[in-house]
Design brief:
Blueprint: E1 7-11, H1 19-27, E2 40-45, E3 57-58, E4 63-74, H2 77-95, H3 101-115, E5 120-131, E6 136-139, H4 144-158, E7 163-165, H5 169-180, E8 189-198, E9 206-209, H6 217-220, E10 227-235, E11 239-244, E12 249-254, H7 256-259, H8 270-296
Antiparallel strand pairs: 1-6, 1-7, 2-4, 3-4, 4-5, 5-6, 8-9, 8-10, 10-11, 11-12
Length: 300
């Protein structure tokens, strides 16, 4: 398993759950197959492996790991339009007039409903990590909307989930400008090689740099009229990642020196190996987050 992204939320109050009570709460919303007339459904699934039954896995560092499975029917727009056009033409010929927008939409919805039983389905799994000690929830996605969907399902299962932004975004935006100048960087973090800057005006001119020396004058000159929206940072022998101006950590690349630490365990004990790997990654991610938080501070 891997952690590639982190949408991070702080809890304004500790969750009154443990692994056992959370397992019971999530079981009511377990993932299931789509019915013939459903277009999408979400539910909790096994976070480690389909052969490992618990819906909640507790790591040695107190982190609770869960996973949400989203299954949706695929109805390509081209397929719908190809079958919709003859129906519209036939209806217009029958009525002797052009159909209204509302009538066309109704025909489209009826067609989609009739096609659903024959549509292929696609599933995706999103992991989330509840740091009970740090009162935080981390969702492994770069998408803010997908993270909110995960929180909504957790809130539905638990009954309450007071999740708030984990950083002061106004201060973060100021710090990103300084960090690109290699100033006031969080402890143990260094400047990476990728950055995206955007002008705050209506035109929104952008300057993107990849695998570039960010201290170079052609990069630094853009700070005069642009804001840093994405910046790559690095922690030696641990990971490289990008922090965005809304506080997300994306594109995490873990260093081999870290990920190979459990290789001697093999995979005979699959549960032991997967939980050991996740322990390493969540522990290091906690340290990276604490380092950033120490400079930026919590949202008001």
């Amino acid at each position: 398993m891997n952690i590639k992204n982190a949408r991070i939320y702080r809890l304004s109050a500790p969750l009154q759950v443990n692994a056992e009570t959370l397992e019971h709460a999530l079981a009511e919303f377990k993932a299931r197959p789509l019915s013939a007339q459903e277009s999408v459904c979400t539910g909790f699934c096994q976070p480690l492996h389909s052969s490992i039954k618990p819906l909640v896995v507790q790591l040695l560092n107190g982190v609770l790991v869960v996973a949400i499975k989203r299954t949706e029917k695929l109805l390509p727009a081209a397929v719908i339009n190809e079958e919709l056009l003859p129906k519209i033409e036939a209806a217009e010929q029958e009525k002797g007039r052009p159909l209204s927008r509302k009538e066309k939409q109704q025909l489209k919805e009826e067609l989609q409903l009739s096609l659903l039983p024959r549509a292929f389905s696609r599933s995706s799994v999103t992991h989330a990590y509840i740091d009970m000690a740090g009162n935080q929830i981390i969702v492994d996605t770069a998408s803010a909307s997908k993270a909110e969907d995960v929180l909504a399902l957790l809130r539905k299962a638990i009954g309450t989930l007071p999740a708030l932004p984990w950083l002061d975004n106004h201060k973060l935006n100021s710090q990103l400008q300084l960090w690109l100048q290699n100033q006031s960087l969080p402890a143990e973090l260094a400047l990476g090689h990728n950055a995206l800057l955007k002008a705050p005006d209506e035109e929104g001119a952008k300057a993107q740099f990849a695998n570039h020396l960010l201290s170079a004058s052609e990069v630094q000159s853009h700070l005069q009229d642009k804001l840093v929206t994405k910046l790559q940072l690095s922690k030696a022998e641990v990971c490289d990642f990008t922090i965005t101006d809304d506080g997300a950590i994306t594109g995490i690349k873990w260093h081999e020196l870290l990920t190979c630490q459990n290789d001697e365990m093999g995979h005979e004990d699959l549960y032991g190996r997967l939980t050991a790997d996740l322990y390493l990654l969540t522990t290091e991610l906690r340290r990276v987050m604490a380092s950033i938080h120490g400079v930026v501070g919590v949202a008001a």
